[in-house]
Amino acid sequence: MADADDVRRLALALPHAVEIDSEGFDFRVADKGFVWSYPERRPGKPRRIRTDVAVLFVGDEAEKQALLLGEPDLFFTTPGYDGFPLVMLRLAEVDLVRLRELVTDAWRMRAPAALVDDLDDADGWSSNVRG
Fold this sequence. Notes:
Layout (H helix, E strand, L loop, with lengths): L3 H9 L4 E3 L6 E4 L2 E9 L7 E10 L3 H10 L4 E2 L9 E5 L5 H15 L2 H9 L3 H5 L2
Antiparallel strand pairs: 1-2, 2-3, 3-4, 4-6, 5-6
Helix pairs in contact: 1-3
């Protein structure tokens, strides 16, 4: 079981990741978002920031569909995210090892190649982000 604090700790342990000011959490690398809290939109009501749900950048539509179909207890989407390589993750349903993998993969897809190389070359990086 994970929460917003776990997302924050894991995201900020990645090279050059920054948190931008938001109602929930919102992490970027090279000015590109890789994980943020879900801004739930409900008809006729104001947007609600859900810190119990993380929006993750994924590689492409095929990966998105594989996650949604393969693990529907963890991942979901909404019509507002159709056509975007993004999935929503229920934090209460994911363990820290899997969360680390997902956040790191999202970061890798958004970071410039030189930063990804820095991560791969970093000694002790994995010990800094273990749950």
